[in-house]
Specification:
The complex is a heterodimer of chains A (about 110) and B (about 120).
Chain A lengths: L2 E3 L3 E5 L4 E8 L6 E6 L6 E6 L3 E5 L2 E6 L4 E6 L8 E8 L4 E3 L3 E6 L1
Parallel strand pairs in A: 2-11
Antiparallel strand pairs in A: 1-3, 3-8, 4-5, 4-9, 6-7, 7-8, 9-10, 9-11
Chain B lengths: L3 E4 L2 E4 L5 E7 L5 E8 L3 E10 L2 E4 L6 E7 L2 E6 L8 E8 L12 E2 L3 E5 L1
Parallel strand pairs in B: 2-11
Antiparallel strand pairs in B: 1-3, 3-8, 4-5, 4-9, 5-6, 7-8, 9-10, 9-11
Classes of the chains: A mainly beta (about 110), B mainly beta (about 120).
Amino acid sequence: GQNIDQPTEMTATEGAIVQINCTYQTSGFNGLFWYQQHAGEAPTFLSYNVLDGLEEKGRFSSFLSRSKGYSYLLLKELQMKDSASYLCAVKGANNLFFGTGTRLTVIP
Amino acid sequence: DADVTQTPRNRITKTGKRIMLECSQTKGHDRMYWYRQDPGLGLRLIYYSFDVKDINKGEISDGYSVSRQAQAKFSLSLESAIPNQTALYFCATSDSFPGLRTYNEQFFGPGTRLTVL
């Protein structure tokens, strides 16, 4: 079976840094994706990790520890437009398995 | 022009009606997927197709059927709609495995909001 856990909601201040955690227990693992989804819109790809360590892409970074079944998404210099849901998804043999998402609210 | 399109964008129907949701893509991807999204439950896979002759059930295929009419088109049907099929439906596409791309991430259409009364 698949079990992917992330916090339901988080709030952070504009300009700050926020870390969104994701833990997973899956029967197969071929990488982990993070997606951003604004309310009522399509998810859009943010990052992918398949090896342990940190991947940095501008203001966004993602970390993976396969032995711990753990990933996080780090958002720096938060902007109001970063208010959205962030979806953690594990790639199995053929498909993606999504967590329920973390809704981030950025406040002034 | 959008790479992945879905029609209709919104639909209200009645219990027992047959509904078809359509998805088209211009990305040239082999793989296509149908998901539904419900509050608090995240995205769940309904069906997926790795090429025109390949159709596979996902986690929650009961009450749904699909047709892959061409590489670029993948339709989802609700044979007899029921109220608990009210949800936001997304189509997605991706490159094949293995491929030249490292990530093979999925690209999502804009979604269809379906309400079954």
